[in-house]
Amino acid sequence: MRSGCQLWKCHFRILRSAFPAALHVAITTELDVLILKLELAQPHAARTERRGAAPGGPLRAGVKDEGPSTHALQLELDEFIICQKPVELLGEESARCEIPVTLESTELPTEHTERFQVRYLLFRCFTPDQSPFGFCEETKLHSLQLLPVYRTGSSGTAQEETENKRELLSLFCFFSLPHAGYLYSLGKSVELISTYQYSEKSEQAVLTRQFLHVITSESLQCFTVRCSAAAARDEDPYIDTTVKACPPVALDVCTLRMQLFIGPRAICHFKNHIILLTKADTEDITERRKPARRMLSGKTDSIKSRTNSESEPGWNLYIINTVSTIQLYREMVDYSRTYENARTESCIHLLSEAHLLVRAALMEPRFLRPDEEEELLRAFRESCAALGDCYSRCDTKDYHLALPYYRMSGLPVAEVLKRTVSEGDETQTYERGFMFYLTHSLNEDLNEELTKESANKVLQIFCVADPVQLPHILCSPCMGNVCPSAAVRCLQQVEKVMPSVVLTLTKASMALRMGDLMMYEHEMDSYKETVLACGFARQPRLLRQHQDGAVVPTELAAHLKETQPALLVAAAVALHENSKMDLEEADSFFKMLCSGSERAVPQLLVDFWEALLVVCSQEETLQQLLLRLISQYVWRISKRQLPETKPLKTTEDLINSCNHFGLIFPWVTCIMSVGSPSDKDCHEDISKLQSLLCGPSTVWWNKLLPELCERTRLAGSDCPALISSLQETLSVVAVELELRDFLSLLPEDGTAAFFLPHLLHCSQKQLPPCNSEGLRGPNTRSGLREKSEGNEQ
């Protein structure tokens, strides 16, 4: 490719990605870099030549420069020295580089020919004076390379099959000047992630996922890279949260090794091997073979000729096995221990380097043996634990990273305490990272119970370092074995400084565990029930905890069930309204709390549904509550099953406090008067059911009316109560509904036809007003009358 007088060197690589086909092209001159991506054009884009799209097939990309002619440029160069400014254009901005690219097809177009379009990713222009070490003519770019990283877990057998199945995760581009190298990420955004400064002039460089290998005039140097850190963030959305972490992409690079060689000329990489080609120059050999003492002789010509023949340049090919990841990891960990006591950033840096080495190796599982992969996983967890130790002990701005690294290590809280807390050291101070980890871990529902010694140690830590968190920490399921009397003493000290309702409830819970009912009642009488319910909403674990995925009531909840059930229900409603407990969790909570009852749905749960119906405003939840209550009322009435405990609210209470419960219609009371005397046993459930059905909703009629008609048809004249009920029901519905809507509810089998004359009489209240001509609106009554007369005939 040519651009004016400049020769462009192209580096092509076809990469499988989410697109059917994607082609990344990297192009360099002596001081310019241009990276493009060819994509399949959209159908509307295929009809235009705005971007120079051409039919698919083998492509020939021509890079054209519309600048001045060669002759004019030469005249300017003879008189002036032109120095361009350095330019860096990323993403869409790189299209401003004014280097047009034309795609030309070398095949005849066919019906199924695909079209491509060009997208600019990166343009960077350097100037000769950017290098402080060499002359202008020595400042040239070299070692342009594209490095793809595929998503972890992709598998395949043959290399071709693997290439087709693997999904491109990240793409990186590396290029180098004699004394500096640049590594860019070409993912969702184009950005510079690392800059490498060489100690001497470089000849060539090769990039791998773990290292950057650079050759100079007399050495082979190895640097760390940040590809795995960038790829990890592209692959895992939970990186850099409280769940997972990864060393930053912008972490300073460091030199790992430097090996001396004579005359390195070329380098390449294959799996775990570095292939190095060297050439020994004449002066090197002469200097190396020079005798210790010069001999004076007249045969200098013969000696010179013999020396020239012996000093012919020699080529050497080296295959260098790179150090295994595990070995290099161990060396870096051992070296980091020299900084462990100093608690400096250097320790974190070295451990981060070691962590990235292991992470990079695990991102290429295809090349690992099963035993090697298991060893790397152990090293990964070990490095996470070491990083957690550093962030928990060092006072750094990233102290919060102690939490995700400890989590990735898989260590339990008790093990972290052993690693961090010194035994018998009463003067030990606790850094922010350790307290951040401990607070967040204990505030979650962990399936781990600390021993009595460990729990008391945690109590002591928070009494010293963060006493305000103590009420919440004592509610953790991990702290079940803490000494309650010691906890009460610590809480009393905190109460002098910052009293709260959560603290009071925590003291009451500890008093209950101690068996001190007098202290318990004193604490519970400190606030009104409404305030106590809000306190439970602020700390739900006072009432319930999660163990193995199940909701487990606490000892305090069990005590409230027996002594203050209204407070327990009010607290559960507060939890639901504050999104701390959903309906399913409430079901499990009350059923487990009332396990002594044989009933599938305990009365306390029905009390919760009724209380929640009063305050709930979510339509979906309201419908669920109404269905659950009606089903429960019907089940009790049909089974003549009385509640095991007295309901907290009567029908009158619900009618006065909840608009979903309506005044019972008089005709319903009339119908119930012909019922059996045994119905009086379920009078409360019957009245609540009637009140719900008489509430403001036309939903229940849509469901109950067809059911009532069906039962009447099946029972016939054997059940006069049903017939009477249907007559009264139809009378009410005919008044409430428009006649057209009402007729659509009636069954088609004629069961309800018997009531049509009566309904015609009831519908007189819905006659439309007369119009200006004295005629009424659509005569829906005439249709109703015709249907009635036809059925009578």
TrEMBL record:
Recorded GO CC terms: BLOC-2 complex; cytoplasm
Region (Disordered): 289-309, 771-793
Ranges of biased composition (kind: Basic and acidic residues): 783-793
Chain's gene name: HPS3
Span of domain BLOC-2 complex member HPS3 C-terminal: 327-697, 698-766
Name of the protein this chain belongs to: Hermansky-Pudlak syndrome 3 protein
Domain BLOC-2 complex member HPS3 N-terminal: residue ranges: 22-307
Annotated InterPro entries: HPS3, HPS3_C, HPS3_N
